[in-house]
């Protein structure tokens, strides 16, 4: 049963390889609009999947994913000078996604699963004393 579930969840879309992603990033560095759009289209599913995993883990709110994807792209474009074509491209993008998540951890994007519990416990503690 798990095998059929796993197969149905796999994307059948063609993923670009490391070389193609590096070539698109080189186009971004050259400020090529078409290649920038292609890179955006290629990397968006990876970023969405990363942030959806954070939603499922309870680290962020579901509504925060779009904003975090935008922030990650902004960091990707601003991080061009630190881009190293000798490293795996997806690992670099996921590092940016993690950094973006951590830099936004103090904002409303973070889901505080214990907020309601803390308030209830505080009220109960005040009633006891």
Could you characterize what this model shows?
The protein has six helices and no strands. By secondary structure, it is an all-alpha fold. Helix 3 crosses helix 4 (65-78), helix 3 (33-56) crosses helix 5 (89-103) and helix 4 crosses helix 5. The longest helix is centred in the middle third of the chain and has 24 residues, at 33-56. Residues 109-129 have low confidence and may be disordered.
SSE topology:
Blueprint: H1 2-9, H2 18-29, H3 33-56, H4 65-78, H5 89-103, H6 115-128
Helix pairs in contact: 2-3, 3-4, 3-5, 4-5
Organism: Pseudomonas fluorescens
GO molecular function: DNA-binding transcription factor activity
Protein name: RNA polymerase sigma-70 region 2 domain-containing protein
Task: Describe the structure concisely.
The protein is mainly α and 129 residues long. 67% of the residues lie in helices and 0% in strands.
Compute the number of helices: 6
Structural class: mainly alpha
Largest sheet, described in full?
none
CATH level-1 class? Mainly Alpha
Radius of gyration: 19 Å
Count of distinct strands: 0
Task: Catalogue the unreliable spans.
Answer: 109-129
What keywords describe this structure?
129 residues, mainly alpha, Rna Polymerase Sigma Factor, Chain: A, 6 helices, 67% helix, disordered C terminus
